[in-house]
Amino acid sequence: MADTRPTGPSGSPLVGRGDADMHAAVTRSLLGYGLLAGPLYVVSALVQGLVRDGFDLTRHDVSLLANGPGGWVQIATFVVCGLMTIAAGVGMHRSLRVLDGGRRAWSGWLVVGYGIGLVGAGAFVADPINGFPPGAPEGGVEVPSIGGLGHIAFAGLGFLCLIVACFVVPTSRPWFGRVTGIVFLIGFAGVTTGSSSPVVVIGFWVAVILAWTWLAVTSLELYRRTPLLTPAGVS
Questions:
Q1: To the nearest 10°, the Cα dihedral for 16, 19, 24, 26?
Q2: Distance (Å, rounded) from C-alpha 140 to C-alpha 142?
Q3: Is residue 89 within 8 Å of residue 109, measured between CB atoms?
Q4: Which residues cross the membrane (predicted)?
Q5: Alpha-carbon torsion, ordered 18, 10, 24, 83, to 10 deg
Q6: CB 26 within 8 Å of CB 40
Q7: Taking the domains of the chain in order of start, what are their residue ranges?
Q8: Of 52, 54, 57, 183, which residue is 20 to 30 A from 44 by alpha carbon distance?
Q9: Is the pTM of this model over 0.85?
Q10: 74 contacts 126 by C-beta, under 8 angstroms
Q11: What is the pLDDT along the chain (235 residues), one digit of tens a residue?
Q12: Residue 41 and residue 35: Cα distance in Å, rounded?
């Protein structure tokens, strides 16, 4: 049976009360995940950090929470928040195809890359270091495991994508993206040393929260700017 629903300028069917077309509705839904991923990640990590035996929020990297009893919670957090970030990145790509005339729509794929990095960081567990979980050696490991190397590789890929995205995704507040990118680069450089210094660990916490804030603010801005009726020629 032929679809007899009314359509917008792009030919996409109207949905709901007819004030939006399907393409715009899907785009906005995907962008909504950009508002949810950060709070879920931060709350999950903070709660785990407070209740896990031997974990010190000022000394231990969040990635270490994937080790030991209860480590599945952080693994799930990485994967779920990564999938949400991938959805938000696809939404940014779709939105910018409309708003930016397609010129920088590719920048949304960088956010997708960050999401893939998070999923990979969940699939590969970081090596225990700095005394966590209890019984782990103090300091770093002499020979990283396959899981540890995979975690570093995916995290590095994702963080690189995020840093570049902060500079190139077009928003009304480009200065915020640049500040976020620079702070995150500095924070990531510090944490890659494996240091348990509170300055390094807390600094990376600040960088992570700032990055999630940028994702939420950017997703919200594009959500609001995405027209309810998609122009002709965009599918």
A1: -10
A2: 7
A3: yes
A4: 30-51, 71-93, 105-126, 146-168, 175-193, 199-217
A5: 140
A6: no
A7: 21-126+144-225
A8: 183
A9: yes
A10: no
A11: 445 555 555 556 656 555 667 888 899 999 999 999 999 999 999 999 999 999 999 999 999 999 998 999 999 999 999 999 999 999 999 999 988 777 899 999 999 999 999 999 999 999 998 889 888 888 777 888 999 999 999 999 999 999 999 999 999 999 999 999 999 999 999 988 877 788 999 999 999 999 999 999 999 999 999 987 677 656 6
A12: 11
**Residue 204 is which amino acid?**
F
Place of tokens 């010129």: 103
The phi and psi torsions of 14 (rounded to 5 degrees) equal -75, 145
Structure tokens at 123: 């699939």
Q: Read off the tokens for 28.
A: 């906005």
Chain position carrying tokens 């035996």: 53
